[in-house]
Amino acid sequence: xxxxxxxxxxxxxxxxxxxxxxxxxxxxxxxxxxxxxxxxxxxxxxxxxxxxxxxxxxxxxxxxxxxxxxxxxxxxxxxxxxxxxxxxxxxxxxxxxxxxxxxxxxxxxxxxxxxxxxxxxxxxxxxxxxxxxxxxxxxxxxxxxxxxxxxxxxxxxxxxxxxxxxxxxxxxxxxxxxxxxxxxxxxxxxxxxxxxxxxxxxxxxxxxxxxxxxxxxxxxxxxxxxxxxxxxxxxxxxxxxxxxxxxxxxxxxxxxxxxxxxxxxxxxxxxxxxxxxxxxxxxxxxxxxxxxxxxxxxxxxxxxxxxxxxxxxxxxxxxxxxxxxxxxxxxxxxxxxxxx
Length: 340
Prior knowledge:
Rossmann fold; alpha/beta; eight-stranded parallel β-sheet
């Protein structure tokens, strides 16, 4: 199948091995984006009834205005189709559930308190993971902190060069897991923003995934990387449900492959995602790295007028994360992935 063959991340991350260990069962991931096509053959049965924060939709998050939301959902939880589900797109956690939250009208994201409403409502509806691929203003700070304190794992992209110069909000918020992108060679992608908040990197170049109307899409940037890490977190949490959200994040960073300068650095963070190692390694065991999870730092000045370069305080990864929620917030138009 051409689509599956073009998904280089499937072999790179050894998903065949990973799926023998965990497929994300029991974890709900809220994808806050452009809506999701629930009838895509690679997502059928995995998309819950969600909700719209902006007008113009069906009210339940079903229906995708541009395909981005369906693409991010597919990277998390696509199960493929055909004989043995061997055709089409495959995600990291194919038995996870997706809660769609539509915040994109097709011409731009909802303004004002739309993001705050989206995050609070996703938490209320029992999502277990938030992945955010846009910059926001400080009105999103409080709801994100509420989500973290409620036990949500908040995953955010670090931003894309050349548009973004600094890791903006919410990637630089305390407790947020900030994700960068790597290419097919495993090295940092040119598009991936560098900075002190980078925690983890994952595939983000020429990433093939699902799209609206049963079609497929290809994109480059830190949006797909973020969805991939969120899917990995779902798989790990499903395998080790006794872990708190902080411990899940800690486990992902400690089992990552150290890249670049030894130890944590501003390009790769604590390293590249290694899902098979994360699933095979008992949490807290000696086989995991003992690298501590990140110091407090800032990446640059925060200017609400320029949302593409907002920044904020970064505190040790997962320091404020408590128990169990991963909401994926992937929004169109002002996304950090112009082509993703």
